[in-house]
Amino acid sequence: MTSVMGAGPTPMNRPPQHGAPTQGERPVEPLVFEKSVPGQRGVDLPPLDVPRADLPDGLVGEPVAMPELGQHDVMAHYTHLSHRNFSVDANFYPLGSCTMKHNPRVNEWAAALPGFAQLHPLLDDEQIQGALRLLYETRCFLQEISGFDEASLQPAAGAHGEYTALKVIRAFFRHHDQEQRRIVLAPDTAHGTNPASCTMCGANVVAVRTQDGYTDLDDLRRLIDEHGPRNIAALMITNPNTSGLFDSKVGEAADIVHEAGAKLYLDGANMNAILGKTRPADFGADVMHFNTHKTFSTPHGCGGPGAGPIACRAEFSPFLPVPQVMMADDGSFYLDRDRAQSIGKVRSFIGQFGVYVRCWAYISACGADGLTNVAEKAVLSANYLAARLADVYEMPWFDPAAGRYCAHEFVTVPRRLLDKGVTLNDIAKRMIDYGVHPPTMHWPVHDCLMVEPTETESKRTLDHFVEVMLRIAEEIERDPESLGEAPSDAPIRRADEVAAARNPVIVWEA
Amino acid sequence: MTSVMGAGPTPMNRPPQHGAPTQGERPVEPLVFEKSVPGQRGVDLPPLDVPRADLPDGLVGEPVAMPELGQHDVMAHYTHLSHRNFSVDANFYPLGSCTMKHNPRVNEWAAALPGFAQLHPLLDDEQIQGALRLLYETRCFLQEISGFDEASLQPAAGAHGEYTALKVIRAFFRHHDQEQRRIVLAPDTAHGTNPASCTMCGANVVAVRTQDGYTDLDDLRRLIDEHGPRNIAALMITNPNTSGLFDSKVGEAADIVHEAGAKLYLDGANMNAILGKTRPADFGADVMHFNTHKTFSTPHGCGGPGAGPIACRAEFSPFLPVPQVMMADDGSFYLDRDRAQSIGKVRSFIGQFGVYVRCWAYISACGADGLTNVAEKAVLSANYLAARLADVYEMPWFDPAAGRYCAHEFVTVPRRLLDKGVTLNDIAKRMIDYGVHPPTMHWPVHDCLMVEPTETESKRTLDHFVEVMLRIAEEIERDPESLGEAPSDAPIRRADEVAAARNPVIVWEA
Amino acid sequence: MDYTQITPREQTAMLEAIGADNMEPLFGAIPETLRFRGDLDLPPARSELELQRDLTEMAAHNHGPHDMVCFMGGGAYDHFCPVLVDQLIMRGEFLTAYTPYQAEASQGALQAFFEFQTQVARLAGLDIANASLYEGATAVAEAVLMALNVTGRRRVLAAATLHADYLAVLRTYLSDLPVELVELPADGGRVAAATVRAHMDADTAAVVVQSPNVWGQLEDWSGCFDAAHEFEGTCAIAVFNPIASALLKRPGDCGADIAAGEGQPLGVPLSLGGPYVGLFAARKRFLRKMPGRLIGRTVDAEGRPAYCLTLQTREQHIRGAKATSNICTNQGLLALRATMFMTAMGKSGLREMAEQCYHKAHYLAGRIAALEGYALTFDGPFFHEFCVTCPRPVTEIVEAAKRRRILAGIAPHGRRMGGIGGPNDLLVAVTEKRTRAEMDALVDVLEELGG
Amino acid sequence: MDYTQITPREQTAMLEAIGADNMEPLFGAIPETLRFRGDLDLPPARSELELQRDLTEMAAHNHGPHDMVCFMGGGAYDHFCPVLVDQLIMRGEFLTAYTPYQAEASQGALQAFFEFQTQVARLAGLDIANASLYEGATAVAEAVLMALNVTGRRRVLAAATLHADYLAVLRTYLSDLPVELVELPADGGRVAAATVRAHMDADTAAVVVQSPNVWGQLEDWSGCFDAAHEFEGTCAIAVFNPIASALLKRPGDCGADIAAGEGQPLGVPLSLGGPYVGLFAARKRFLRKMPGRLIGRTVDAEGRPAYCLTLQTREQHIRGAKATSNICTNQGLLALRATMFMTAMGKSGLREMAEQCYHKAHYLAGRIAALEGYALTFDGPFFHEFCVTCPRPVTEIVEAAKRRRILAGIAPHGRRMGGIGGPNDLLVAVTEKRTRAEMDALVDVLEELGG
Ligand SMILES: Cc1ncc(COP(=O)(O)O)c(C=O)c1O
Ligand SMILES: Cc1ncc(COP(=O)(O)O)c(C=O)c1O
Predict the structure, then answer these.
(1) Could you give the 3-state DSSP secondary structure of residue A453?
(2) What is the DSSP-derived secondary structure letter of residue C421?
(3) What is the layout of strands, in order, in the sheet containing C235-240?
(4) Per DSSP, which regions of A39-122 are E strands?
(5) I need a labelling partner for C187 at 20 to 30 A (CA). Which of A449, C260, D360, D445 fits?
(6) pLDDT value at position A243?
(7) pLDDT tens digit sequence for C260-278
(8) Do A433 and B83 touch (CB under 8 A)?
(9) pLDDT (tens digit, 9 = 90+) per residue, B234-285?
């Protein structure tokens, strides 16, 4: 890029280059299996210091064909792979709905402390008082932030939180002799996990129409009528919703749902936009999940681990999964495993403990004012980007002049650019050439980009992104076909995803 | 590269790419000072919990103009810089004389243990028994490996070891009323630190001719005669020498030197080639230094830290620098700071402790057989590369048919290729395009490359290097001018080093 | 420190670009009645130094395998992990990336996951594997759901010797579905093939057997799965331990159709039970019914090998309510960790690790069984964990060992293991990390309390 | 494990390519008489797990700031360092690279060192700085050597209040050279400008004054250096502490020509005294006489900013015996560490750190001075370290504090500090890490032993 652009925030981490560029060839990193040399080994073990026992007759197998690499080649291999990956650390990563914020390294340090990382999950409560305190305080933090009375740290991710919460809601209704409440309503823009979670607990999901980005309350009323109020278990919403808008009518929606005797479930994926500004319990939700890997900065790790703790009103308390972390009257902590009405266990042991260490550290670093500032800067950054790009990238629901702002993310359907003959994919892949990770695509509507900058990027980075997007728009004006070639400066050219699905190769066969 | 080449060992760590490749522009990473935004800050401190004291009149300065960056931008900045650096982890790095071997990560883990990394240097000996044991054992290891009676861990690097050892030799002679021994002989191919170290301790260095890569013993005799045996302090040699050859006549050289009443100093930079195969004390040396960052795998860290411990015969013991780590009769360890004849201190505190943790771990991992295998594989790898390349890259001193092998490294003066109109620099810079770090250049002779593969590279990597070198040779045959453009696939094109020296800019000024 | 970077002056400029006078309008969509106007009741913000202090302090209030000798297992094992794995996994390019939706920007993660899938499939002895599930218990539950889905049947037979938590989670997962879960009773710590046969019928979707099982005993997978397959289409689900697979016959070798298990032994820190990583492998015919992410190998526009997410039409974000699972975020970083671990240990390293577990466990079992008053609870073959019946309540033994800084094992009698054992039962696990001296020290403790 | 990767089969193939039957010919140049044919007497090779065990065990036999409260200074200080520095510095691209000889393959290191040079020059208040020397003492010695070299004179005045090790090293470095080293006596813990003046002559190459000095006292740099400059050409050498520079007047502000110092306070672990990093800055006119590596900013063939090693003709590998220093390998990784530390703390962070050191040290000094029997040994200004004269031998006090897990300070009476103080003197350092409660606990110990 020119010096102005080059002076941008993620200007370049062009690394050690390999290959023969004059031939226009791009090197390939072979698989560990291809690099394998019989007899090599990366790490050794101490000599066996006990006699060998007889191996059990008929039960012994052949050594498994794992790779055979020396230690240096192992280091080199995964170092090379790391160089073939975009990340928050090295790239602007505005993946909408995913809240790709900065991951403080002190949190990693904490989770790796031997006194945390090396605890066996079946230790006695008295041996893990420090860990239980951390879990208990995290539980309290989440209750305070959500305004709810109770929280459970069991679920392993957001989708698992949805599932757990729906189980809890069903248990609640069963307990109240309303087992027939099997229908869950969810907007047609809901995240895919919402309906999928319903299915997994035997609920039937029915889509509510959205209009202008918002849940259509008339349709909601209509559907409740149609299916019968007594059959509705819950409405699952996301707020701010998946169009990046805070739904002002959420209170009304809650009333409608409650009138039907059903519950309002909040998918808390977008909590980053409202921390300290409004609390789910205050706007009428009954149960929710958090995504710690979004809101509370636990690293995304190429797709997990996250955690999906749920929070809820007291009425659901008896039904929460076991174990629950508790404080005893003497100030000590324990795991309550005996809860007669509990839905039971939703995973082994006691949850994503290592993730909660990071979550605790993050919330503790921010404090109340910090969390509020997080929401403000997240919303500010998204609106700033939207305002600077709206002339070129159309945004159906963003109109500051009319007082219509976005929350922490915005959606653009760049129709004018697409009409020049490029695809949304072309635009996304071109962003890769500029070192920017493409936003979320085609959701909540077709042909859209959903852009979430988060609060931890500097203005310099945001400005750089604007320049990149404007430059891509210019390129489309000038030479739309060239975008079909993108990316031209990535480890690979465009991957053939159609071929991958047509003839799936899921494991390596030499 | 083609799939064969791409299947090489360091095929590609092309990373997140930034910039606008279609314009052929390459992004620039601004300095932290350029990224600075007033008011930003990367890390916070606890609130001050004591009253403020008056600041001293007239002594207080203005805040210093350090960069101002938020935490995320700090992470991004140095992550980007790391992507602009070749390393052993990601690249073949056959830098001759530098022994760029694999750096085991367990050694880093060890050095970072709080019980090592957080020790204050002025703690009492009884508080640091573990650390002193480690130092004492390291001292013993080095004595055993060299065959010497004594070792000192004080010197901070190889050059510092040379300096320290020369001081010790001078103190020895002073003690024996031979202060006039001020002349140090060294081959004309000696590493630059050898003469520079002589100067620093007030010795005069005189160059001995080398012939066919070896020290010319006739010239040695002549010079001793010329300057008078009683004025000679030492002969400084490197063996295997800086031409990558073990000098078979080292015993004879030792005899000549000893006959003159002088001492034989061994620059141990090339110990990797002879570990367990021959010991400096056995071949007549009196004093030597090790480079832990070469032979014992302490990481090179972009140029240090290393350590340059010295080993010597018992006669030098009284003169070694303080402190010396000792074992008491009761098996406890202590630092001996009272040595009347010691040359004194050569650095503050007690040396490069953290480096010795790694050194100890490395030697402990290898054991005796391992160290011998290190030497064997280092020598095997160098000879293999030499044999495969010798047809195309001429090697003055390598002729296996005549029984002339190299040690752990070899020197090529690729005269035929240079005669096609390329410079040595062109060849070196072209290697960068192939992901290989260029070898040492123009030393020990002009227009040479000195290639040291080390023992930790796989055959796959060695073969890949051969292909790269042959390919470059082909390119030179085909189109020598194109090499003048190299590197074409690095973060920058060729740096203008002449301009840098003509108009030196050593610090940033906005 | 809240890690934001925008200064007040920049905020002003940004608001100007937006056309807002201050921050309030940006939150204008939140009706005033719903606004939270108080201060969240959280502890004051902590600086990094305070975090370091407080977390060090909290960690110091925990005791476990880091400062005691660990013979605890029960589904989470204290294995060796080379330092290079810990260091590689901290690289920001892995730590701070997300699901590799954009293939061209994520080849590193994709290739590593493809390696993971291959390694897991090989350890399971099956054709294919996915890129991870949450952990062992949910992996088993997902396997059962897949079997139900594939067969359209309504009955599931699960060995009573499954890990207590796995059984509990399975109960939860099936509880709101029109499915019957039948527990296969054990006999002498194992489920007999005949028992499976006795419970089979044409509506049986799956038979689930874990080996080593909750008692550490090796089940007769082949026998049980043969019995299952007497009804065509029934899915034989093996719950497996990946370290055991490096030595013993693997699920696929014994006729399993699906294998699920806990990946924690593959270099994942114990970390009080999570985050771990669920392993999931199956025969090829299940490909389009698999839960979770699948990475496929393909080519790029120039024919170079490339990796990408594939068969996403199975997944929630495309298929919604009809998806094969609701899983989205999985356990990527742990899968990467396991990949690096398996690569670093390699073929012979994993084998040796498994052998050492076996020999050491048998050494200790032999010594304990020879003590007066102690006996092995079961007499079947075992891998690295075994149950001992002690001459007195196991709580006393555990307490006595604690005083010598030994974690003697797990009491399967307790709530944490589902209360499956007797009060005098002690479940002891031995990994390659344990030394003979450590084992002898445990024997000494037992001996003192014996007789 | 010796970390080699070549298998026996590969070795055979390689020998064949070389044309050797076995390994012996490759070592044929070593005469048989010189061959070592025995086995090195070293402990048996240790596996990684054994290394982990044994090193953990050795580390457990050490006690210091990691498990006690540290008031020790004396040239090495227990400062805070953010975790991100520890993690970035472990990136293999930095850890496993060497001196950036090849600019195009080393822009990362070069740019970081250029940032380091700029930061160090700014902290010193001088024009230029190099890319590091070994540590503080040799940096001071190199400064003196440079002054001798530049001036061609033969006399050096060094304050007796220099850190004892720095003086000792200086003595070593000058001992074989035709140079006179004169120690400037102190008065009340500081060197008076008049003392400098009294010792000056036309053959004086350099005047070396450290502030804060070995007693923690702030010297009158301006006065001393003015006195030095009364003879034209004499080099005023300031030995400085980089944290103090963030608050107090810097060497350059006080007339220094050269500044040298220990960079350990800038995020470098105490690590029992090393590896540390020597700081070296000077006025522009010394550019071509500087020891050590210098990174220059230049352009590449397309005009883009680029960095490279420059003025290498000063260095040993070009200039040999005439080089400005013999240094080759320096302290690269520690310089990178310091760079990251300074960038992360930033302008306000470094200032606040320095202020906290100052205020906390003065709080503690005030509290101790108020105790019966205790008095500050000197009455000059100080930064974060001060000397207390105690009512009894300081060894007793140090021992008593140890029992409370407090490292009370350093006894300057002892050999380790050159025996400069009285038996009842205690040197106490306070960094931003110390809390009021920790300081009050030390005061309690002193109080109990006082009176
Ligand atoms: C709106 C929304 N809901 C639910 C989820 C699922 O959360 P998880 O991926 O943690 O299972 C996501 C994650 O992307 C989401 O964006
Ligand atoms: C032969 C030789 N001698 C001495 C040295 C100097 O060692 P150091 O860089 O550790 O000071 C080197 C380093 O490159 C060398 O190669």
Answers:
(1) coil
(2) S
(3) C128-129, C278-282, C258-262, C235-240, C204-211, C155-159, C180-184
(4) none
(5) C260
(6) 94
(7) 999 999 999 999 999 999 9
(8) no
(9) 999 999 999 999 999 999 999 999 999 999 999 999 999 999 999 999 999 9
For residue C147, the 8-state DSSP code is H
Q: What is the spatial distance between Cα A379 and Cα A453, in angstroms, rounded to a whole number?
A: 9
Helix (H) or strand (E) holding C429: strand C425-429
Q: How far apart are CA A103 and CA A362, in angstroms?
A: 9
Q: With the C-alpha atoms ordered A379, A384, A389, A390, is the resulting torsion angle positive or negative?
A: positive
Cα B331 to Cα B326, B334, B507, D44: the distances in Å are: 10, 10, 52, 21
- Which residues of chain D does B198 touch, with a Cβ-Cβ cutoff of 8 Å? 321
**What tens digit of pLDDT does each residue of B451-461 get?**
999 999 999 99
pLDDT at A10 (0 to 100): 29
What is the C-alpha separation between D216 and D186, in angstroms, rounded?
Answer: 13
Radius of gyration of chain C (CA): 25
Q: Among candidates A235, A153, A304, B113, which has minimal Cα distance to C330? A: A304
Q: Which residues of chain A have pLDDT under 50?
A: 1-24
- Touching subunits of B (3+ CB pairs, under 8 Å) are A, C, D
Structural contact between residues A434 and A471, judged by C-beta atoms closer than 8 angstroms: yes
Bridge partner residues of B441 (DSSP): B449
Tokens of B126: 């009884």
Determine the pLDDT at residue A17.
34
Mean pLDDT of chain C: 97
Task: Give A375's Cβ-side CA count (13 Å radius).
Answer: 24
D325-382 tens-digit pLDDT:
999 999 999 999 999 999 999 999 999 999 999 999 999 999 999 999 999 999 999 9
- Write the burial class of residue B259 (CB in 10 Å: 0-12 exposed, 13-18 middle, 19+ buried): exposed
Measured between beta carbons, which residues in chain B are less than 8 angstroms from residue C84?
Answer: 104-106
Give the ligand with the smallest distance to the CA of A157. 1
Do C77 and C83 form a contact (C-beta atoms < 8 A)? no
Please report how the helices D332-369 and D436-449 are oriented relative to each other, as an axis angle in degrees rounded to 10.
50
Supply the pTM of this predicted model: 0.97
Please identify, by atom number, the ligand 2 atom nearest to the C-alpha of residue B293.
Answer: 10
CA distance A81 to C97: 13
Q: Quick check: B158 and D320 CB within 8 A?
A: no
Q: Which amino acid is at C18?
A: I
Of residues B407, B370, B150, the one with CA closest to residue B274: B407
* Rounded distance between C-alpha atoms, residue A105 and residue A112, angstroms: 11
- pLDDT recorded at residue D245: 98
The answer to whether the CB atoms of D169 and B348 lie below 8 A apart is yes
Helix orientation angle between C107-124 and A71-82, rounded to the nearest 10 degrees:
130
Residue C87 with chain D: CB contacts under 8 Å? 90
DSSP codes, B192-203: THHHHHHHHTTP
How many whole angstroms separate alpha carbon A374 and alpha carbon A363?
11
Q: How far, rounded to the nearest angstrom, does the alpha carbon of residue C302 sit from its chain's CA centroid? A: 39
Helix (H, G, I), strand (E, B) or coil at A410: strand
Cα–Cα distance for residue pair B331/B226, rounded to 1 Å: 51
Joined together, the tokens standing for residue A263 give: 């519950």
Is the pLDDT reported for residue B10 higher than 80? no
**DSSP letter for each residue of C237-300:** EEEE-HHHHTTBPPTGGGT-SEEEEE-TTTT---GGG-S--EEEEE-GGGGGG--S--EEEEEB
Sign of CA dihedral D153, D155, D161, D164: positive
- Report the Cα B281 to chain-centroid distance in Å: 22
**Positive or negative, the Cα torsion across B452, B454, B457, B460?**
positive
